[in-house]
């Protein structure tokens, strides 16, 4: 198991695994262990048996305290485990070898020094592993905060949007208002999914090579107004994108890169104009409506698609005006 900077999805499972390993090491402690360490181990064991909710700080502290009480063989086993977790930036102290001329007293002295070095190495690597795990847990907590906060705002916004669209269509007879609201709503949902996907993958920027650092994750969690703005922009981009589709400009700007059979054949405002002459009733189902929903979601999820089209259109307009 690698403890890297990416979020850990099942922190409860990881915590239980750490506790189980500590309990196993406590059970194998030598009899001459320091009394203070034994008291800490006994208190920790009672807390586990009583099913108390142990904090990560308690687990980390118990792990550090336990290192000094481990035997040499246990320290070497732990060193092998830590070196397999990708945190071995320092070289593991090599186990000394002895010739036949070395006396038992000299051998014992050298092995005591080796144990001190190995203990220092284990403490340093354990501290690094704990920091990496703590960072992953902090990211997971902030991702949860983003998910809850943005999800609540999105649900409220969509409820208001669709309710107003229904009222306007029935009160003033504005045909296609509800359909337009659904396009905007699906674009906002797509942008929301994009934000959560990049946060969960440890990415904040759209560029996949840009790693998400702990400070950026905190900013993403606490600057919720600016993050929600990107969700709102997803709805706006979805509406603009559907106007591009209905106007026929999308294929012109992209150089026929989008196959016509993939595009929805629905007039966004009047909810009519299907090839077979069907009217508003056709908007209530069928593959045309499904295509409309997929493209609406895609325009919100792919945050650069509509801006790229707009940039290309403005570039062509500037070129013609310059002539």
Shape: elongated
Q: Return the average pLDDT rounded to an integer.
A: 79
- Total of DSSP H or I helical runs spanning 4+ residues: 11
Taking the sheet with the most strands, its summary is: none
Rg is 31 Å
Helix content: 55-70%
Total count of strands: 0
As a percent range, the share of strand residues is: under 5%
Q: In angstroms, what separates the terminal alpha carbons? A: 63 Å
H/E element order: HHHHHHHHHHH
Unreliable sequence segments: 1-9, 203-212, 272-284
Characterization of the model:
This protein has 323 residues and is mostly helical. 68% of the residues lie in helices and 0% in strands. Helix 4 (72-83) runs parallel beside helix 5 (104-172) and helix 6 (177-200) crosses helix 8. It is elongated. The termini are far apart. Mean pLDDT is 79; it is low at 1-9, 203-212 and 272-284.
Layout of helices and strands:
Elements: H1 11-27, H2 35-49, H3 56-67, H4 72-83, H5 104-172, H6 177-200, H7 214-222, H8 224-247, H9 249-254, H10 287-301, H11 305-322
Helix pairs in contact: 1-3, 3-5, 4-5, 5-6, 5-7, 5-8, 6-8, 6-10, 8-10
Features:
323 residues; mainly alpha; 11 helices; 0% strand; elongated; disordered N terminus
Quick structural gist:
By secondary structure, the chain is mainly alpha-helical. It is built from 11 helices and no strands. The longest helix has 69 residues.
